[in-house]
Design goal:
There is one protein chain. By secondary structure, the chain is an alpha+beta fold. It is built from two helices and five strands, in the order ααβββββ. The termini are far apart.
């Protein structure tokens, strides 16, 4: 029994390899990677529809009753999403003028999300008389715009 480590070198090597592998998972990983830059180069931008006062959560229609197409992918009309500098830190600014979202161009695995949220005071149509509405949706996949809350945004 005392010579277990001497008599079974292959088992010892395997156990040592597993131990090193498991313990290396607890070591400090690479430094924090900021995903925000002035051009939002690491993000896709999706804008849905211009707001209308009578918006009820349905796809809007034109005067003929035809469905209006969303603004779409990477057409950051009116600069709805921009990055500003606040005390030397890049901050994502969302104007709220058009419903939309941004989502990563790259999928990440085993990450920590850090975010600070700060509300402005301005309210826009169609939410002038409603609570403010925004959020972070993560681990979401699919085509942007389809089934909005379970899609790429």
């Amino acid at each position: 029994m005392n010579n277990l480590f001497l008599t079974k070198p292959l088992v010892n090597l395997t156990v040592l390899s597993l131990l090193v592998t498991v313990l290396s998972g607890f070591t400090k990983g690479p430094e924090w990677k900021n995903l925000l830059d002035k051009n939002l180069s690491q993000w896709e931008i999706y804008l849905s529809f211009r707001h209308k006062k009578d918006y009820k959560g349905q796809i809007p229609v034109n005067d003929k009753g035809e469905l209006i197409q969303p603004i779409g992918l990477n057409n950051n009309m009116d600069h709805v999403f921009t990055v500003i500098d606040e005390k030397g830190v890049p901050v994502l600014r969302v104007s709220g003028e058009i419903y939309g979202c941004i989502f990563n161009k790259v999928e990440y695995l085993n990450y920590h999300l850090k975010a600070k949220v700060k509300w402005g005071s301005k309210k826009l149509v169609p939410r002038t008389d409603k609570l403010k509405d925004s959020g972070i949706l993560y681990h979401s996949i699919g085509k942007q715009g389809d089934e909005y809350w379970r899609s790429g945004c």
